[in-house]
Amino acid sequence: MTDNEARWGMTPVARSAAPVKERVVAALREAILEFKVTPGERLVEREIMQGMDVSRATVREALSVLASEGLVTVVPQKGAHVAIPSADDAADLYEVRAALESLVVRRFIERATDDEVALLQGTVGLMQRELDDDTGINSFLRAKDEFYAVLDTGARSASLSQLLASIQARVRMLRLTSLSTPDRLPHVVTEMREIVDAIAHRNIDRASRLMTEHIQMASTLALSALHRA
């Protein structure tokens, strides 16, 4: 594997049967969300082309997709770089996310089966294991993603799923910022366990409030980190 292939976390896409553009988008998105490339860093087309063995047109199409997701900023005649979220944008995203996630919790309690509640409880256990094993922030985030995936499935709302998907990538980038605060992860597990306990007791108001408070805390920490940057 060459240096460029290692940087982008993949072998040349031409060796895969999957659609080329989609693989390039996925690889670049992962590199951004796992901070293999950092906010403000330039995304050099030639480097990506060589690392993935794809055409310039494919790279530009992929960058356009990521720009629509808010992960990349493309400046005419100057190229692309990883987006730097502003404090105002972050505040708006967290406010939207708090409203959507609290509603998802309500729908989950109304519509989810007992088995789905048990699955949700299991995801908190997974987060605890990742924390105990000290596997790193990205592994912890993947475990947390499992929680939201179960929550989304049990809520059975295509409209909410679509709305959350539209901001998911930018929220994940900000989540990494909020979780960078020392000793934050144990508190996250505690907060998620309290949310799930309220869900298991079918206490809609308490569960919704706890979810809102959890996201508000994440917002406070992320905005503080952005102001320090």
Query: What order do the strands of the largest sheet run in, or round the barrel if closed?
Result: 1-3-2
Helix vs. strand class: mainly alpha
> What's the CATH topology name of the largest domain?
Four Helix Bundle (Hemerythrin (Met), subunit A)
Shape category: globular
Q: Give the CA-CA distance, first to last residue.
A: 34 Å
Radius of gyration: 19 Å
Count of helical stretches: 10
For the record, the CATH architecture of the largest domain stands as: Up-down Bundle
Q: According to CATH, what is the class of the largest domain?
A: Mainly Alpha
**Strand tally, please?**
3
Strand content: under 5%
Helix content: over 70%
- How many distinct folded domains? 2
Oligomer: single chain
CATH superfamily of the largest domain: GntR ligand-binding domain-like
User: What is the chain-wise order of helices and strands?
Assistant: HHEHHEEHHHHHH
* Biggest sheet layout: 3 strands, antiparallel
- Ranges where pLDDT stays below 50 over 5 or more residues in a row are none
- The residue-averaged pLDDT reads 89
